[in-house]
Amino acid sequence: MKTFTLGTSKSQVLEMIPERSIHKIHLDEKVIALVRLGEIFYAFQADCPHRGTSLIEGTLTNRGEIICPLHKYRFEIKSGKVKVGSCGDLEIYQNELTEVGLKIWLP
Ligand code: FES
């Protein structure tokens, strides 16, 4: 498991990542998607498990789901579970907002 730290403080991370937008983050050679709801962050694979379309262009619903722009499959960003569609679940990444930044763990 690899640990990455985004930013240098909690307040800097909160300023850097506006709420409810979908961010593309590069961690080494991996690209992940990051969403903030309040002080909770959700990190998940940036490409759709169905056909690999970028979820960065997806739509976030009020129910905490992301809708893929291509075939409109839906995934719960908290658990990664596919809610509408027939493909595998989203890979999600553990993270924690700390006083020294946002820690993200990749397997
Ligand atoms: S590529 Fe995402 S739903 Fe088909």
Automatic annotation (TrEMBL):
<dbReference type="GO" id="GO:0051537">
    <property type="term" value="F:2 iron, 2 sulfur cluster binding"/>
</dbReference>
<protein>
    <submittedName>
        <fullName>Rieske 2Fe-2S domain-containing protein</fullName>
    </submittedName>
</protein>
<keyword id="KW-0411">Iron-sulfur</keyword>
<keyword id="KW-0479">Metal-binding</keyword>
<keyword id="KW-0001">2Fe-2S</keyword>
<dbReference type="InterPro" id="IPR036922">
    <property type="entry name" value="Rieske_2Fe-2S_sf"/>
</dbReference>
<keyword id="KW-0408">Iron</keyword>
<dbReference type="InterPro" id="IPR017941">
    <property type="entry name" value="Rieske_2Fe-2S"/>
</dbReference>
<dbReference type="Pfam" id="PF00355">
    <property type="entry name" value="Rieske"/>
</dbReference>
<dbReference type="GO" id="GO:0046872">
    <property type="term" value="F:metal ion binding"/>
</dbReference>
<feature type="domain" description="Rieske">
    <location>
        <begin position="9"/>
        <end position="106"/>
    </location>
</feature>
<comment type="similarity">
    <text>Belongs to the bacterial ring-hydroxylating dioxygenase ferredoxin component family.</text>
</comment>
